[in-house]
Amino acid sequence: MKRIFSILFLYIILQRFTISESYSQNRDNLRIAFWNLENFFDPFVDSTKIYNDYTEEGIQHWTMSRFYKKRNNLYKTILSLSEGEPIAILGLCEIENTFVTAMLFQETPLRNHNYRVIHYEGDDRRGIDVAMVYSIDKLQLIYSEAIKIRGPDNRKIKTRDILYAKFYDRVGDTLHCFVNHWPSRYGGEKETVYLREMAARKLRSKVDSLVSNSEYFPKIILMGDFNDTPSDNSILNVLGAKPLDELKRSDTLVNLFTDEKKLGFDGTLKHQYRWQIFDQIIISRSLYEAKSLHYDKKSATIFHEEFLFVEDKTYGGKKLFRTYIGPKYQGGYSDHLPVFIDLK
Questions:
Q1: Which of 37, 91, 304, 311 is the right S-S partner for 179, CB 3.0 to 4.6 Å?
Q2: Interval 35-60: pLDDT, tens
Q3: What whole-number distance in Å separates Cα of residue 96 and Cα of residue 42?
Q4: What is the 3-state secondary structure (H, E, C) of 107-143?
Q5: What's the CA gap between 289 and 297, in Å, rounded?
Q6: Which pLDDT score, from 0 to 100, does residue 6 have?
């Protein structure tokens, strides 16, 4: 009997150690995520901007109660995405200002995760910007800046900034992160492709600058809504982000979001019948191959919980539960799905 008790006691101790060790490892992981929030505006009139559709008197009839409903939808999704641990870095786009990020990260249960927000007012005509949210329990911010994008032949051509930030993790590794929201296809895909290629060239020049000024190849993360797929010229050739199975010795950027079969879902947004992957996370080869802080293999995921969808009665299957479809209020979440990877 004593022998059985001793074995049982040892088993319990080992189980507790295993659970504790597993939890510790999970806590040491860094989740890196991105989400396009679909027009996350406050409901107030901004006299400094021409665009005020998202106000009570605007064509979207955007009220405070609708704002709170969207805010609550967003924070619940982010909590689900985080799986109980703070997300190390969360890139966001289509946010209007610091008021909406404060209401999301300081006035909801997300405040318990000690997030801080990096945001710079941009030049977008509708007033929507990119932002970066990080956990001070996971990372230390060293530097940040908004990178302006201007046309080489026409300086009046402006698009949304690229947001850059440099971090240290808890063991001294350095991470360089860029959040993007490239020009949309509004007006036609072919007619606007030069704008996305312009953004790609700017981003590539910043990556090259980091590499040339570093003794070792830096660990870099590029994330965003690129408004192009991984196989489009802007990403594949101008930026030079390649699928893992197509990497050549000279390639330095790995696109982790090239194969929907390995990502858990068909795409991050839907146009009529077709799902596409516009939202992607791209990393430097050094982050993929490192033995210290490195990419957790096969962790790249399109987050696709059922509550983010509704039935698609027009084209079949399901579609995203959006906040608006045109001027018609739906009360949903976003027209894009979040994406994430884990670092170990």
A1: 91
A2: 999 999 999 998 778 889 999 999 99
A3: 7
A4: CCHHHHHCEEEEECCCCCCCCCEEEEEEECCCEEEEE
A5: 10
A6: 42
| Strand blocks (E) in 27-109 | 30-40, 89-95
Residue 291 is predicted with a pLDDT of: 87
Query: How many Cβ atoms from other residues are within 10 Å of residue 315's Cβ?
Result: 12
**Structural element, H or E, at residue 175:** strand 174-181
| Res. 116: pLDDT tops 50 | yes
Tokens 């045109």 locate to 326
pLDDT at 101 over 50: yes
Lowest mean pLDDT among 7-16, 23-32, 154-163, 239-248: 7-16
CA distance 237 to 249: 15
Q: pLDDT of 149-177, one tens digit each?
A: 987 665 566 789 999 999 999 888 999 99
64 contacts: CB under 8 Å, gap ≥ 6 = 43
Q: How far is CA 132 from CA 144, 230, 280, in A?
A: 10, 22, 15
What is residue 1's predicted lDDT score, i.e. its pLDDT?
46
pLDDT higher than 60, residue 21: no
- Rounded CA-CA distance 220/286 in Å is 8
Q: Find out whether 238 and 197 touch, Cβ atoms under 8 Å.
A: yes
Q: How far apart are the first and last CA of the chain?
A: 44
What's the rounded Cα separation, in Å, for the pair 254 and 265? 20
Q: How far apart are CA 308 and CA 337, in angstroms?
A: 8
C-alpha span between 149 and 234 (Å, rounded) = 15
Q: Which residues pair with 31 in a beta bridge?
A: 342
Q: Is 33 left (phi over 0), alpha (psi -120 to 50) or beta?
A: beta
171 phi and psi angles, rounded to 5 deg: -110, 10
Q: What is the pLDDT of residues 298-317, one digit of tens each?
A: 999 999 999 999 999 999 99
Biggest CA–CA distance in the chain, Å, is: 86
Name residue 180's beta-bridge partners: 224
- CA geometry: angle 5, 10, 16, nearest 5 deg: 125
3-state secondary structure at position 303:
coil
Helices (H) and strands (E) in the chain, counts: 6, 19
